Amino acid sequence: MPNVEVRVFVNERGVSVPAGTAALDAVRALFPEDADGIVGGQLRLTDSRGLPIAADTPVVGGAIFRVVTARERLSDGAA
Question: 60 near 9, Cβ under 8 Å?
Fold first, then answer.
């Protein structure tokens, strides 16, 4: 079976990766520093709607991922 590539988008830039590749690896193909930031917790990965997704989510053709700053959670006493 041939290695099928799919086109996905990371921060509005397209990249072709093998079907089933982890979303983090799609990010790494375009933005290695951002991938390191996701692994380190400074950045996070979202879908096109801004909903968080796991870095190991398999890509599908046409998927859109965004890399955003990870916001620190407020402590219970902060308002």
Answer: no
Query: In angstroms, rounded to a whole number, what is the distance separating the alpha carbons of residues 69 and 79?
Result: 21
Q: Rounded distance, CA 67 to CA 10, Å? A: 8
| Per-residue pLDDT tens digits for 10-32 | 999 999 999 999 999 999 999 99
Which string of DSSP letters, residue by residue, matches 9-68?
A: EETTEEEEEETT-BHHHHHHHH-HHHHHHHHHTSEEEEETTS-B--TTPBP-TT-EEEEE
Average pLDDT over residues 33-38: 97
Neighbouring residues of 57: CB distance < 8 A, sequence distance ≥ 6: 22, 23
